Amino acid sequence: MTTVLVVDDQFLIRAGLVGLLRAAPGIEVVGEASDGAEAVALAAETAPEVILMDIRMPGMNGIDATERILAQAADPTPRILVLTTFDLDEYVYGALRAGASGFLLKDSGPERLLAAVAAVDGGDALFAPSVTRRLVEAYARQTAGEQPTDLDVLTSRELEVLKLIARGLSNLEIADRLYISEATVKTHLNRTMTKLDLDSRAQAVVVAYESGLVTPGG
C-alpha cells in the first residue's frame, strides 16, 4: 500500500486527485493540503511515501514546502511529485533542485498519474514525457556560465550511467546498454548521488546538464 499526500490550493483539482487515488488499488490517501504550510505539517504528521505537490499556492509555495518537508523528514524521505499547469514553468526548475523526484502536467490522464505515483514510489524520477528534453535544455541554457559541479570524483562507469540517466533512460535500459545488471546500475547511481551530495535522480539529471556532461541537443 503506497501512502500519498495530495497538495493543491484548488479544491476541485484536489478533490479530483483524491478521488482518483482512492479508487486505485494499492494506494491510500493519508491527507490533503491546500497550501505549503499545511503540507509541511501534514507530511510530518502522516509520513507519506509520495506527495503530489502543487507549485503555485498562496502563502508557502510548493518549492519552499518541498525543501522543508525533505529537510525535516526522517528516512525514508517521501518522494515528491510536482504537479504543474505549465510545461516550461521556471518554478519547476527550483522544485527539482529542492529535491523533488520529478514533475507531471496537470492535464495528464488518470493512467499516467497513477503510473507516475508508482514510478516515484519505486525510486525513479518521473518527467512529463512531452517536455522532458525541452525543460532540462532550457534549464541548462539558463544556468550557462554558472560554476558547474565537479565530476572528477566519479569513475568512468559512474559518468556513463549519469549520462544515460540524463538522456532519460530507465535503469533497465541503462543495464541493457552497458551489459550490466539493473542492480549494478542502481549501485553506480547511489554512489554518484552520494559523491555529489544529491538527494534525487532528478537532481542528477540537472547536474549532468549543468556540468556539461550532457549538452542541450547533443
TrEMBL record:
GO terms for biological process: phosphorelay signal transduction system; regulation of DNA-templated transcription. It comes from the Bacteria. The keyword Transcription regulation applies. Gene3D superfamilies: 3.40.50.2300. GO terms for molecular function: DNA binding. The modification 4-aspartylphosphate is found at D54. Residues 147-212 form the HTH luxR-type domain. InterPro entries: CheY-like_superfamily (IPR011006), NreC/VraR/RcsB-like_REC (IPR058245), Sig_transdc_resp-reg_receiver (IPR001789), Tscrpt_reg_LuxR_C (IPR000792), WalR-like (IPR039420). Pfam families: GerE, Response_reg. Keywords: DNA-binding, Phosphoprotein, Transcription, Transcription regulation. This is Response regulator transcription factor. It comes from Streptomyces montanus.
